[in-house]
Write a structure and sequence with these properties.
Strand content: 5-15%
Strand order of the largest sheet: 2-3-1-4
Helix content: 25-40%
Largest sheet: 4 strands, parallel
Number of helices: 5
């Protein structure tokens, strides 16, 4: 595991004090690393992100020695097949969420919405 930078460690410690969190930090400050560290012991996790970011999530998870990952892409049937064997980390893009909206039901321990500001989810 890569060590946290001082600002990441400070933010992470505050995240543990809240049952729900939102990280609206500037780009390149390590939100993904903070998030992975915060939720690494939970399962199953759903990450909703733009398609271009899904593989960055996979790469960041691999850097943390996490390999129990599903990338839910392809047709509706392909995504549903992958969901029959959910992994600890399940990554889907926003368009995929529209294809199988039922994915956001109560099944997940944690749901992470990445790049939320670009999709009309208001900042706090």
């Amino acid at each position: 595991m890569r060590p946290l930078l001082p600002h990441q460690d400070k933010i992470l410690s505050k995240c543990y004090m809240q049952p729900k969190i939102a990280l609206f930090l500037d780009m390149r400050l390590g939100k993904t690393k903070i998030t992975i560290n915060r939720f690494k012991n939970e399962t199953p996790i759903l990450v909703i992100a733009p398609l271009t970011v899904l593989y960055s999530w996979r790469d960041e998870l691999h850097k943390e020695n996490i390999t129990d990952i599903n990338i839910l892409t392809g047709s509706r049937d392909n995504r549903l097949t992958l969901l029959q064997n959910p992994k600890q980390w399940n990554l889907i893009n926003y368009e995929g969420l529209q294809v199988i909206p039922e994915i956001s039901k109560d099944y997940w321990q944690t749901i992470i919405i990445d790049e939320s500001a670009k999709y009309g989810i208001p900042k706090l």
